[in-house]
Specification:
Helix 4 packs across helix 5. 38% of the residues lie in helices and 18% in strands. The chain contains 14 helices and ten strands. The chain is α/β, with parallel strands linked by helices. It has one domain (9-359): Rossmann fold. The protein has helices at residues 9-13, 15-24, 91-101, 127-142, 159-170, 185-191, 201-217, 225-230, 243-248, 252-264, 279-282, 309-315, 337-340, 342-359, and strands at residues 46-54, 57-65, 75-81, 105-109, 147-157, 174-180, 235-236, 274-275, 298-303, 325-330.
Length: 360
Amino acid sequence: MNHIKLSLIAIFMTTGIISSAQTKSKNPFGLVYEDAITENVKGKVNIHPVTYKLNGIDIAANVYTPANYDTSKKYAAVAVAHPNGGIKEQTAGLYAQRLAEAGYITITSDAAYQGASGGEPRHTDKPFFREEDIHGMADFISRYPGVDVNRLGVLGICGGGGYTLKAAQSDKRFKAVATLSMFNSGEVRRNGFQNAQLNSIQERLKQASDARTREKASGNTSTSAQEEAGGKIPFSGVASITDEEIAKTPTDLYREGYEYYYRTHAHPNSTFLYTTSSLMDLMTWDATDQIELIDQPLLMMAGSKADTKYMTDEAFPKAINAKSKELFLIEGATHIQTYWKPEYVAQAVNKLVNFYKANL
């Protein structure tokens, strides 16, 4: 993806995309995935929108409870970390619902500074905060009625997968660790996707540093519309894209990602934008740094045709101290197809259920 400096106001200029998403999202909970819950029915899987504080920031999350949920019983629980640019109402919600259908209490939250969660400047995307989001989900769900704190697992999807590998290194409340289509955000922001930007690392770090200077010079990091219009907070990423531009995008990840996030599963809270200054932290971070600290059982899943599979292939052999580990390939799937395509989701969920049953 080209890292284009953009003002956040560009989001609101893409009225076609936003209005389309709002029109299409008839679901009362804002869920945009297939077969999403539309109402809470007694005796069935239910969804519970919740908010909680994390480091002074309001976090918006959804908790899913299994059929015939009984607070007097004890349930295993799974925290689900969403992809980069994603939110809890998209694929993270789909997997949370499917796992609840299998008998787990699940939670998925919007990252701090993103989605419906609080935090300024908006769309800050720093690894420390994303890791804290995962710790925060463990904090909240561990206190939820019916949760067995000794049977807590975690699932990270895409960027959430990379952050899950990092969070699980220190957070031993997680007894089983799984990733799907893991995306090592630090490696890609540093080296470019498929290592295509190795010769511009220092230049991009300089741009990120200059962006931080611009943010701090204003004396106010608020991302109000007025500030955005003035361009005081530089952004990287893509605010909008045409059908023609999507068709011409050469990599499956980004072409199918644009289709997913801006067309088929669009949601007004989801965006590919992030503050350019975030790159100072992203480019010096790596999901595999100290991965040997993971001593829990580890399952890493990826599509056999995913152009991001190289990141899972790099990380998996480095997890030398995992209690047990397995690399599971979803045959024929690309990265984005694991987010929504029923036959691939079914394979991943079946593998996850078996993994959690064995280890929680």
